[in-house]
Amino acid sequence: MSTPASSSGMSSLKAQDVLPALRQMMKNLEPNIRASGSMDAAEDLMLHLEERDPSFHRYEFVKLIRSNIEESLGPLMDEEIEKYARSGQAYDTGQDTVVQTMVAHLVNSPAYSNLTQQLMVETKSAVDTLTREFQEEQEAQQALESRVEGPGFRRAPSFGYLSQSSDNDSCGSSLNNSDFMFPNQKEFEQIGEKMDQRQPVEFRLMNEFMCVVPSYWIRCPDKFLEEVIDSTLYLLHTHPTKALGGAEPLTPVHYLAMLDKKAGWFKKWMHGNYSRTVVLRMLKEKYRALIDNAVKKSLEFCESRKQPHSLLDEVTSALQRESISTDSQLQNIGEGKRTTYAGPELEYIYFIHSLCMLGRMLLYSKGRAFFPIKVKDKEVKVTDLLVSFVQLLSLPNQSTRPYTGLDAASLVADVLKMIAGCEAALVECLCKDAVVSVLLEPVKARLKPTKGKKAAGEATLLHIADILSCLASSQTGRRMLLYGEAGNKAGKPNRNISTAAHTIVEFATRALSSTLPSEESSPSYEVVGAYVFVCRQLYSTCEGLSVMHSYKLHACIAEAWRMASHEADIATTPLPAVEGDQTDSRRVLLWEESLIDNLLNFAATPKGLLLLQQTGHINECVDYMYARYAKKLQVSKHEKFGYGVMVTQVAATAPGMVALQSTGFIKALVNELWTQLECGRDDVRVIRPTPIPVDPIDRTAHKSFTAVLNLLSSFPAVYEALAEQKLQNAVSYTFRDMPNDMVGLIERLILVDTPAKMHALFNYEQSHTFGLRVLSVMCSCLDTFLLLETQYKVQESLLGCQAENVKEESNELIIDALSVERNHVLVRTYLIGGPSERKLPPRVLLEDGRDPYPFPLFSSFPIPKSYPTTMAGRSAMKQDSELSRYLSQTKTAEKNQAWLDGCRKAFCKVLTSKPDLAKANVLVDMLEKVVQGQIKVQEETIFPKVDYKVMARDRRDVHGSDKGLKSQSLSAVQQLGVQLTIRYGTHLNLVKNSKDTKEQLSHLLKQVRFFLRQQQRNIDCQLRLLQGEYVGHDWFTSTLFLMMMGKSERCWNFLLKFSTLLSSGYLWMPRLHASAHLPVPLTVSGIHPVYYCSAHYVELILQAEVPAVASAFRMSGYTPSQICQHWLRQCFWNYLDWLEICHYLCTCIVLGVDYQVYTCVAILRHLTHDILQHTQNQDLQVFLKEQPIPGFRVGEHLEFMQQLEERYRQTVQPDMRNLAKP
């Protein structure tokens, strides 16, 4: 892979450019380097310079390197992105993200190698010049001082630069490849002279050398590296002979451990692949005994934990008081410092050193390859070693001690957390039932205490919670906690309550509700909060919530928050000051905040949002979220993204929109948007005129554009925000009049149809274009369009604007940016059809100068004939198929389970082999017979059968009669929906556009409305959505009406039978609106099962089956549940062609309603390439809402959906069936 840019490398970077830039940076850093006090501190300063120096990116040297990196590697990155986008295939599934894979390819490219080589050469040349200048300056300074200051003056030691490298050096992955100050030989001698004579100088110096040399050996020949490592390991490998009857002699490792307890030298040696490869090779080939002995000593120490713990406690405390150089910095041993250590202290230090060494080795595959290790005729595996380490966590002497850093539990916890942060090491080391089981033993002991056995203390429980949190932060560790080592697939129900997740959530719920056994004191807020946080990491994912939801953790957290809130109110009440009150008040306030934060995170999933709503505290949670969102705070320490996804999830429901409005979130968003479009920022100094935006949505407003679309993506939320809200339509507007809600935004940016509104905009064209783009996306939801049109006459307003935008001399419509945008919206809202059934005009002009816009503009309906596509008429020839033959051979009495199974097979065969033969007439015949058979199956029939005629007669309701229905009228939304349906059916040649057809459909909808009204509750609720009948259009009934060629009586008879089946609750949206068949809490929530059940499992399966798409949604701030709810509410109208819509409905009814979930997953999988591309373009929401789904055929994806059925039906279908208990 090469480009002209990559071949030139860093041709523009020369030593004469680098030298002044590097000199400027070093001059600025000189005070900090001198103040660092030691070489390690200086090295640490340089390694973390970007994090600590706010001026890092202003240095000319940094700018110079960045510009050359962009010049050399920028084209390669673009090429890699395009290559990936074209392939449409995910990279290695072992990588967490696509970005990591792309970066890996880039780093391994020849261009990157050339870049680093030339950077090293040119920088080295500049460094050599600086070094020479520095040395000349130092020599001159020394000569001057020798003449002026006399012999009694003592200077601070001078430092020189080590800059030894050759072109033949290998360049590994070590980051320690910069030039740092290094003491010369004379300085080593001075340090040695100043040391206490009772201390071994050679070890002190050797340890310092071992810690410093990794910073330089990348500049040295490979032979030097091997000699240093070989000599050092040889010395450490040396083991003095034990005298007969004498004590165990001290080894070099003992001395090294006293100086460097946590093996900092080994950490640095293992950091880069350049040195790590040599270290592990030599350990394996020549010095394996060093590792064997470390394992042996570690196991011996772990086994000796049965000794009196007071002794171990004493040893740890003694070491705490000592100031031995833990980070390899040279320190003088003055008076009051001990220089002798007892035997147990030395062995404990040796254990610490061995623990840190072994923990570092386990991070790498070649290090894990040393196991199993034979110790005392027993093979020790990695699992055995880790189990021994984990057992140290439960030492009783940890019961009252806080984190110290040198106690065994803290050290083991640090090692385990380090391993948990490495994916490969996590899988092979910690994702073992044996390790996790031992880790949770103290927690299990608190749940079921053993008489006479002391339970683990606070520090132990906190250590365990930290380790579990690190595990739960990755998908691998999370699945380990949920399903155990066997790694049960998410599609299979997990009934094994012995898995770690069940233990953790049981402890958390019982601790919150204060129902733990009373033998021990109740755990502190800190402990309980730590375990609730681990649960939060699990229940914030769909699969985690599916495993844990039976514990009612949301209710426990809500109750604990209510109690904490009450305590906080008391704590903040002014009272006479008492010692310790401030601390207790602070603890209570932090506990209250922690609980509301954890409760809020239930909103991360569709089902979790329902549970949050049922606690009654969604408003408080959203208020807390808004406070943190406004400050741009992180969701948690393990969460990479902010609150964008959670805001989108909340905005998908009616109660969520109410909560967002009540907290001021909507007002703040609208004000920010208005400021970006119309006002600009006052705090930005204007040094040049603002450039005229060339994109329809300016870059500065793109984020607000996306946020608005996320909030208005769901019809229930839109209805809560806009229903019954009138426009102001003022005579005049001042420039200070700023909209504060969505209605004001629509009035000022979308329906700009009066001179007053136009003149009130500073940037009329840009702002109105923004509004029209928002309108276009909103109208992709048919119910939202019907609401906007019936309430605000959107089409009439746009047509009026088009009619006014004409040439005076010819009355021709003027083609400009706004007229083209309006034309697109008008055609989109008038025509209904899938990817091949309608043609939408573009939003931009063509490059053809003669005819830049060959699409006719219009100012009145109907639209020109060039926009609808020509549909083929119905074939008069009867085409036979296996399905039609199977249906024709069936008798009424034969419709049993065996017949249903045979029908499924015939349907699947036709769908996969000859889908064009599965036309509407055959499908309708099949549906009628399948439903007739399913009503006899108890598992399918979950709603009671209602006789419509008897119901109307018993209630003496004249409205139920045909005469009574004719006297009623449909809502404005339903009436406009009827017009759209007939227009679409006429275009498909399914029905005639006649008055009779309209009356037939209207009568059918009235029958359905009356039928469902008798099965609904009268709800006293603040939600506008639930105050009356279903507020949207019945797209399912309209679809059946077209499938049955406008035969309303046939359609009505089908619906009466179909209404008893499970699938009716998910395919027929009005079926469960305010339904008496649902529990009251579910009914008043206003959240439909399609969202909290179907869409929930779409997200669960998508994460497991198509993780790249799931990640793309998360990065974009959008959710799969949002778009799936949108598709399903309108039965894929405008997204699939008519035949595919029929196939979708038949698949869900014949094969099972869980195929609704599998179809959505299959569609998102089909769109993988486009989703990844538009995520990169930051317009995923717009793409998914506005664009149809081209090329998707239900039959072509049926095999994949059947595989999903095999893996997930045992989880999905029971949950969909159990509507009473979500």
TrEMBL record:
Pfam families assigned: BROMI, BROMI_C, BROMI_N
Entry's transmembrane regions: none
Coiled coil segments of this chain: 120-147
Record-annotated BROMI C-terminal Rab TBC-like domain positions: 778-1218
InterPro entries: BROMI_C, BROMI_M, BROMI_N, PHAF1/BROMI, Rab-GAP_TBC_sf
BROMI N-terminal domain: residues covered: 22-139
GO process terms (BP): non-motile cilium assembly
Key words, A-Z: Cell projection, Cilium, Coiled coil, Cytoplasm, Developmental protein
Subcellular location: Cell projection, Cilium; Cytoplasm
A GO cellular component annotation in the UniProt record: cytoplasm
Location, primary (coarse class): other
Domain BROMI middle region stretches: 202-760
Function: Required for high-level Shh responses in the developing neural tube. Together with CDK20, controls the structure of the primary cilium by coordinating assembly of the ciliary membrane and axoneme, allowing GLI2 to be properly activated in response to Shh signaling.
Name the UniProt record assigns to this protein: Protein broad-minded
Native species: Branchiostoma lanceolatum (Common lancelet)
